[in-house]
Amino acid sequence: PAAALLGWYDRQARVLPWRAAPGQPPPDPYRVWLSEVMLQQTTVAAVQPYFAKFTLAWPTVAALAAADEGEVMAAWAGLGYYARARNLIACARAVAQSGGAFPDTEDGLRQLPGLGAYTAAAVAAIAFGRRAVVVDANVERVVARLYAIAEPLPGARKAIRARADELTPDERSGDFAQAMMDLGATVCTSRAPRCLLCPLAEWCAGRRAGAERYPVKAAKQAKPLRQGRAFWIAQPGQVWLVRRPGKGMLGGMRALPDDGWSARGDGSGQLPLPGNWRSLGTVRHSFTHFDLELQLMLYSPEDWVSLGAEQGEWWAIDRLAEAGLPTLFAKAAALVLAS
Ligand code: SF4
What we know:
With 339 residues, the chain is α+β, with helices and mostly antiparallel strands. The protein folds into 2 domains: 2-213, Orthogonal Bundle (Endonuclease III, domain 1), CATH 1.10.340; 225-338, Nucleoside Triphosphate Pyrophosphohydrolase (Alpha-Beta Complex). 39% of the residues lie in helices and 13% in strands. The protein contains 13 helices and 6 strands. Strands 1, 2, 3, 4, 5 and 6 form a 6-stranded mixed sheet that branches. Helix 2 packs antiparallel against helix 8, helix 8 packs across helix 11 and helix 9 packs across helix 10. The radius of gyration is 23 Å and the shape is globular. Bound molecules: iron/sulfur cluster. Iron/sulfur cluster (SF4) binds at residues 142, 145-146, 187-188, 193, 195, 198, 200-201, 204, 206-207, 211. Iron/sulfur cluster is lined by residues 142, 145-146, 187-188, 193, 195, 198, 200-201, 204, 206-207, 211.
């Protein structure tokens, strides 16, 4: 199957800005690493403009290591899973400190901050041509179907990994990893897989059994709903923004002040200032483990009170797009600006 898949990849590989063409020398490890971090939990289409923006602003790992943290966080805004951006900076700095080159083995890469098993394997294979077993969600789906693995996820991960290991060739392991990703993204899609176009069809047990049944998933639990409040405190032309604490949800990002929904989640938070508040409505946002309903409160001051400068800053409302607000707060701001 590996040879058939590589042959298909030679003809069908997606052209992506962080990739080398099939069979060509590996691309710059910095670009491979950056793309893999961005692609976790995010689609190729969503990543492309961010990848272009980052490589323009910080073309090398040394440039990213020297970057201002706030600027990097702002450039990441909208891509989600902000811990990835914090790890990105920490990792770039660790690489810069140890001479500026990425380690060229899976074990060496694994030592870097924020590099999990998947990313280390992907970078080792794609950027350094090392044999590594690279299993992302796409690969998981392809392998579960290929072998009609009946055990549900997440328990099936071990079996899927063992099968992926058997499939991975010693040569062209980077191309093989990317070929599996491409197959999962374009042919063996979660819905309506195109088995007639698939180079692995003749080996595929899942196809005969009804491919869409795989991977089998454990019954989903409903996501809890949390409620909270965010505060729009404005003076003419400006709004008060805070920087969220480094750890925790949306950590390190600029944001509207809120009542700590992420900690308590019961919407019982206090108003930050005494005075006249009115509710403008709510925005909903879905995080991985919960949905959030955020009530947006507007402050109409009678007197200006001083707000602790160490906690936040006045930000020009017509430059709000440059504040790098995460999607949740960008939605809240849009609600105010549309009212
Ligand atoms: Fe997926 Fe169908 Fe190919 Fe099997 S034959 S790997 S189910 S696309």
